[in-house]
Amino acid sequence: MNLNDELFEVVIGLEVHLQLTNLKTKLFCSCDSNYRDAAPNSHTCPVCLGLPGSLPVMNEKAIEFATKLALALNCTINNSSYFFRKNYFYPDLPKNFQISQYNKAGGKAFADGGFIKINSNNHKKIIDLNRIHLEEDPARLVHLGSIRTSPYTLVDYNRSGITLIEIVTEPVLSSPGEAREFLNQLKLIVLYTGISDLSLEGSLRVDANISIKGHPRAEVKNINSFKEVESALVYEIMRQKFELKKGKEIIQETRHWDGRVSIPLRTKEFEKDYRYFPEQDLVPIEIDDNYIDEVKLSLPEMPYERVIRLQNQYKLSEFDAENLILDKYVADFYEDGVNSEASYGPEEFKLYCNWLMNDIVGWLNEHNKAINEVNLKPHYIVDLIWNINEGYITTKMAKSFIDSMMRGRTISQLIKDKGKKRISDESVLKKYTKEIIKENQEIVEDLHTNNKAIEALIGRVMKKTKGQADPKITRRILKELLKIREK
Ligand SMILES: [Zn+2]
User: Fold this and answer.
1) Ligand 1 centroid to 29 CA: how many Å?
2) Which of 237, 286, 379, 400 has its CA 20 to 30 A from that of 463?
């Protein structure tokens, strides 16, 4: 079956739940929010266990973090909003309701609108957001094996009451690839704001509403990782197309993604089933414009702003700048490196970027490592480029240094090591150089009009000596010999 079948226009809307992992305590109590690796049910108190008589108290820092994210996503923050109880019965909710926000029945979301710009098929596309709101995370249900076969369910309340932000997009995504790109951009923005580390397991969960235009939609829940989103969407789109091609209609329902297939969980609840009503145990959230301005001032540079600055400051292309910022730490590394050398201009800025993005990031991807997990220092690449420019090493030799550099070897150490086998005896080099000149008369001719042809000759000497000739001495000898020939 063809996914791009034009008869079937795909419509995707996402509800992204992200934990504010950089908060120290939970949303309504002072339990430690760093529950990962903790013994089950060890980070709990009467509030997050939902015991009768306990009262929630708002975490002020969570408001600040939500404000930061709302600003970074270009949303309009509501000056006054309050919490609702979303009622449902499920073992992960000890109170039988979740404290959340609601944009109906007189309620308002934390912030409305907003957008994220993504690259889709080499075009920029604006993905409009509907709203973002704050809510508490339910507890974690643990199944033995899979949800279908487990004989019982365990409940860990350590996650109960962790701060979540839900981001709801408009149904404007039109492919699994766009959804992936959207999540990548979102993840980047969240990282830059400093409110959360979304690489932590379970810190980001996605519910996806998927439909073929003109037909009912299905909601796929519990997509627990970035990687899974794309495969869950691909599967669900295929399933719906297949049903329609068989002449069946899509049932509006909630489906569970189990990592391989989506399975029916329950027919879709309607909003009335949740019996939303205001949470009277919490005061409304009041945010004035002064507060918003204050938070705005504290907001660091955002990735999309950094792209523009990198282009202006280092004369990089949009392509290079966008590539650099994909990993915040790679972009930081780049700026540390190029700023450590006062003499650098546009040519070196570009060279440094090429070495970093091709050779270094290539190595990192191959070894599944992040730039802050290796011993490479930003100045090593400066040294590398300098040694190439001065003729101490060839580009080829520099590339052979990469692996050792990643393990913390400096360029001077590496050159010293290589030097043991280095041919720097002038009489030996002269012999090789003369041979190369004799064998490559056309390149020598080329030198009259093209200064760079000398690089080709040095390259031939290096090749002939299996990379052992001292490039600097070779260059000098070549120049001397060729001058004599020119006379
Ligand atoms: Zn608690």
Assistant:
1) 5
2) 379
